[in-house]
Design brief:
Oligomer: single chain
CATH superfamily of the largest domain: ATP-grasp fold, B domain
CATH class of the largest domain: Alpha Beta
Radius of gyration: 17 Å
Number of domains: 2
CATH architecture of the largest domain: 2-Layer Sandwich
Strand content: 25-35%
Number of helices: 7
Order of helices and strands: HEHEEHEEEEEHEHHEEEH
Largest sheet: 6 strands, antiparallel
Length: 228
């Protein structure tokens, strides 16, 4: 079972994962109201579908005025968004997420997933944020960092440090990334997730570490956990 980006961020935020402020909108008027509430001066209008690659398909736009917020929301809502993950038929956009903009210094990839072969949780990361991990694995496999976690023992600080150090993080960004990874694992296990993907995970100019996008998939039997 999949959920939308904004829903994933709401869940992750409750576990202490840092996300930007944002609001869902079902029409252009609601989008403008959401942007006004956030304050600006830069916003991101993000189509909400269950597929990646939205930016390349025209489903994510950075805007700098309320007129642009309205125009992009009006364009996206109702469109049939085609990405490399939707297939040629695409998916219909029924809502957009209006989110604060941020000053990005670096982008990374971070995910957790269940490895069925080893019956362990795998943390996977890469310095190549914003790219599909399959493409990174094919062309630059040396840029993928992995560590596996014994579910009986659970995550330890050294697991998170291995990933953060592997990404080359230092100082405040290093400490915040370790905290985020630990929080992400807690959400993963307590919500019975099959995968959690943050792409990109960004370090801002102020050394904040933020989940700029989020995808979560769940075991269907765990639906009650996110509805209660």
């Amino acid at each position: 079972m999949n959920i939308h980006e904004y829903q994933a961020k709401e869940l992750l935020k409750t576990y202490g994962v840092s996300v930007l402020e944002g609001h869902i909108a079902f029409n252009a008027d609601e989008a403008v109201a959401a942007a006004e509430k956030l304050g600006g001066p830069v916003w991101v209008v993000k189509s909400q579908i269950h597929a990646g690659g939205r930016g390349l398909g025209g489903g994510v736009k950075v805007v700098k005025s309320l007129d642009e917020v309205r125009a992009e929301a009006d364009r996206m809502i109702g469109m049939q968004l085609v990405t490399h993950q939707t297939g040629p038929e695409g998916q219909k956009v029924k809502q957009v997420y209006i989110e604060d903009g941020c000053a990005i210094a670096h982008e990374y990839y971070l995910s957790l997933l269940v490895d069925r072969a080893s019956s362990r949780v795998i943390i996977m990361a890469s310095t190549e944020g914003g790219m599909d991990i399959e493409e990174v694995a094919e062309h630059s496999p040396e840029k993928i960092i992995k560590t596996d976690i014994d579910p009986a023992a659970g995550i330890q600080a050294y697991h998170a440090r291995k990933i953060a150090f592997g990404l080359g993080l230092k100082g405040d960004a290093l400490k915040k990334a370790i905290k985020l990874i630990m929080a992400m694992y807690k959400a993963f296990t307590e919500l019975d997730c099959e995968s959690v993907e943050i792409n990109p995970l960004v370090v801002t100019n102020d050394d904040d570490v933020v989940a700029l996008d989020a995808k979560m998939t769940f075991d269907g039997n765990a639906l009650f956990r996110i509805l209660t």
